[in-house]
Every structure is written in structure tokens, then in C-alpha cells.
Amino acid sequence: MEKPVQWGVLGAAKFARQYMAPAIHGANGARLSGLATSDPAKAAPFQEFCPDLNVYDGYDALLADPNIDAVYIPLPNHLHVEWSLKALEAGKQVLCEKPMTMRAHEFDALIQKRDDTGLLAAEAYMIVHHPQWQMVRKLIADGAIGKLAHVTGAFSFDNRTDTTNIRNRAETGGGGLRDIGVYVIGSARYATGQEPVTVQSAIRWENGIDSFTEIRAQFPDFTYSSYVSIRMHPHQEMVFHGERGVIRLTAPFNARVFGEARVELHRPGLEVQLTRFPGDDHYKLQVEAFCRSVRGDAEYPCPLEFSRGTQDMIDQIFEGAVSL
Question: How confident is the model at residue 163 (pLDDT cuts 50, 70, 90)?
């Protein structure tokens, strides 16, 4: 049996505690070994499901441990590049929360460092590891809905009362577009394999962050429209509309949390083929794919170059937006 990849987590973030640390702990080929936090109270919930977890009083201390093979970085957005580079320099494989950078050009240093070290560095864009998205990509490629004509997307939640949340703070890279815009944008790019030709957008600003963003784009073979908001009732959906059918996903981004992952294939004659994915955990699948790549068993399906493309579209959205 191969030695599992030893993981460390930089920071006791709520998202890490609820989703990614348990996923690492339960993934095949992985072992949750360390957590860097100076607050023992924040470490306690992690130790409840991983009693032998090593706790380090600082990020540098964890990175200095030669027994740690890979790190997961759930820090505030504006710290992602800095600590990803430090982790690579320390000889660690890196899985960093999205958005991995604040601007597309910042990926260049990460790509260069990845290539120089020969280590794996990736953005934690978990949805590409979910079988519902792999199915959608294949359906489109196989012509199941004919020629694709239009893609629509939506992702929203309301956190206006959580005033201390990093998503509500401009100085930590907050706002809806960076937090959830990556999903409506990246999923369309992943499913179709195409990049936008032109981009138009409108943003509602609130205390320096984008609380609502509407996006329209022209891709080589289809048109695109979507919106994201952190001030609206929770909703998420992606629709791929072709000349001979429609693909609809009702829980495309937070499968099992927002609802059961389902792919609806609407065909002529009002026929609807429903495929359900009740048990698939894309966080766990992401960790397992990462570990396979670290061992050299498979290429990682979401390289930095893909994530750079999503960030490039986000940059265009910010730069060309009109204010609402």
C-alpha cells in the first residue's frame, strides 16, 4: 500500500473545518496531519474528527515540517498568492482556495514557481471533479443537445448581516464576483472548452465590494448571460440551451449542501432524462485527484492555466463594468 500524502492546513477557517479538512481526512490516499493556528480553541473542532492532528502555532512552522507533503490554503483572498508561493518554496504541494489570485497576471508567478519546483499547485475549483460536470461536458461534446446556442447561470446568497465576513470586506478581496463568480464563469468554460470573445457587465457596489454582478458575453459558438449576488435569496442554476435540447443543473455548485446534484437532459417531445448524484462529494474527489497527481498516477484536471482563464474573464468584468 502506498504511503498517503500528508496534508497540512494553513489556518482554521470555517470552510476548512466544515468541508475541506473532513474531505482530506476521509479521502483515499490522503492523511490530515497538521493544522496551523495559534488559537487552541479553533483547533479543537478539527481534533474532534482527527484526534491525532498536529497543531502548529504558525504557518511557517507547519511549512518547515518535512513530514508535511501538501498544504491546503483557505486564507482570505488577498493572502493566497503570498502563501502559495511560500509553500512551494518550502517544497510543499499546494491546493489553494479560489480565487487563487486577485488578478490574472498574478498566476504567472505561481505557474513559474510550479514549473521551477516540479511541484503541483492548483486552485481548489472542486466542481470539475464532480461527475455531474464531467457528464455535462461529455453530453455537450457528443452533441446530445445539438449545436449549443446559449448558456445561462445564476449563483446567489445573502450575507448582509454578517458584517465581519471577509466576503463583505474590500480589504480582504471580498465581493460576490471573486467568491462565487468563478463558478458561473469557470463552469461554462469547463463544460464547453471555449473562451469569451467579448464581455459586458454591470455591477452594484456596496462599501467597496460588488454585491450584485450581471454578465453578458459572446463565446465563439454561443452567447452567455449570468448573475451573481451576495444580497439575494439563495439560488443556483446552470442551463446549456442547444438547438435540439437543454441541459439543466439545479445544484451545480454546492451539491449536497444546496441540494442533490442532478442533471436534466431535455430532449424533443418533452422527454426529460434525469440523472441523480446523491452521494458524490466533490471535495473528497478533489483531494483524491490531487493525491493521484502528486503520486504521478494522473494529470490534474484543473491546472493553473485553466484557473488563470477564469480570472482573466473576471478582470474583464471588473474593468468594463457599468455601475448600477
Answer: confident
Q: Are 262 and 238 in contact (CB under 8 A)?
A: no
Question: pLDDT tens-digit profile of 256-301?
Answer: 899 999 999 999 999 999 999 999 999 999 999 999 999 999 999 9
Cα dihedral 151, 103, 312, 262, rounded to 10, equals: -30
Exposed/middle/buried for 313, CB within 10 Å: 0-12, 13-18, 19+? buried
Tell me which fold the domain 127-283+309-323 belongs to. Answer: Dihydrodipicolinate Reductase; domain 2 (3.30.360)
Report the alpha-carbon distance of residue 292 to residue 18 in Å, rounded.
Answer: 23
> Above pLDDT 90, what percent of the chain?
96
| CA 161 remoteness from chain centre | 24
Amino acid at 13: A
What are the φ/ψ torsions at residue 281 (nearest 5 degrees)? -110, 105
Does the active-site annotation cover 98?
A: yes
- The total number of residues shown for the chain amounts to 324
Catalytic residue among 42, 86, 92, 98: 98
DSSP 226: E
What CATH homologous superfamily does 5-125 map to?
NAD(P)-binding Rossmann-like Domain (3.40.50.720)
